Amino acid sequence: MDYVYLQKQIESLALDAGSMILAADTSDLRDVTVDTKSGRRDLVTSMDLEIQKMLMTELQKLIPSCRFLCEEAVPAMQTAMITNADEINRGVCFIIDPIDGTANFVHGNHHSCTSIAMTVDGETQIGVVYDPYLDELFSARKGCGCSLNGRLLPVFDTSIKSEITVFGTAPYDDATNAPTFRLAHLLYELSADVRRTGSAALDCCWTACGRFGLYAELGLSSWDYAAGKLIAEETGCIVSKIDGTSLCFEERPSILCGRPSAVKEFLDEYCKNA
Ligand code: IPD
Ligand code: CA
What is the pLDDT of residues 76-115, one digit of tens each? Predict the structure, then answer.
């Protein structure tokens, strides 16, 4: 399989998705409908669906036998969807979040992206995340590093003390509310300051490029982190579950993503309090 060629094609589709986000946004979302899914915080818009359909159609042209693990349900494409998580371990799978940061998109907070990962026999080989608002394209190929707008990102290490850290609120599961804000408190105590941005994929990417020293969240879906995990790992970050154990594609795992020293310093304290 020509991964260099596939990476270029995936990058170009992510840019197309970004143009769709910007076009909807500049018309003040006039033509976009908004619905809820599992609860009041879990939003889906007609633009999520349109982008996902476009990506699935084009990716299927590239690899006709591919399967998909995607955030939204697009009726015309359901037969290509993975129904059992084990299916990721066979053949090519695209894990897609058409808009990560849907709530930001709906509320006009310009911090959202499109996230596409390609796995082969269960291993992520390519991860691409595009933020159309900042025109930033993060792109990684396994073992070949990660670039931001074509510039290779450096591999480095840093202590948590001097870094800004970021947490996610796992907003679709109220059972995580209290532990999430204990986590945020611990991050604030350990680091220079904390942020909550509303896009898990960009939280991984911003950790990859050094804007954050560490990112943690107590419940995510595969499409939220599949591309971001490879992007962060290719810049030397450690990506695991919150307790330091390995993170694979599974039902709503937690995530911890950061520079090796920052992760170690965090875990020393987190495990004391857990
Ligand atoms: C959400 C965002 C958010 C994170 C949630 C995700 P969505 O994705 O990444 O930052 O806290 O856990 O589900 O719903 O906007 O695609
Ligand atoms: Ca989404």
Answer: 788 889 977 788 999 999 999 999 999 999 999 999 999 9
Q: Positive or negative, the Cα torsion across 156, 151, 148, 67?
A: negative
Residue 185 CA to residue 162 CA, distance in Å, equals 16
CA distance linking residue 112 with residue 108, whole number of Å: 10
Q: Per residue in 104-145, pLDDT tens? A: 999 999 999 999 999 999 999 999 999 999 999 999 999 999
Q: Which residues are CB-contacts of 220 (< 8 A; sequence separation ≥ 6)?
A: 168, 170, 200, 252, 253, 254, 255
**Cβ-count burial of 132 within 10 angstroms (0-12 exposed, 13-18 middle, 19+ buried)?**
buried
Which residue's C-alpha comes closest to atom 12 of ligand 1? Answer: 170
Q: How far is residue 29 CA from its own chain's centroid?
A: 23
Cα(248) to ligand 2 centroid in Å equals 19
What tokens does 171 get? Answer: 């907003």
Instruction: Kindly list the structural domains of the chain, giving each domain's residue range(s) and its CATH number in brackets, ordered by start.
Output: 3-152 (3.30.540.10), 160-273 (3.40.190.80)
Ligand 1 centroid to 198 CA: how many Å? 6
pTM of the model: 0.97
Distances (CA, A) of 193 to 42, 111, 186, 220, 238: 27, 19, 11, 23, 20
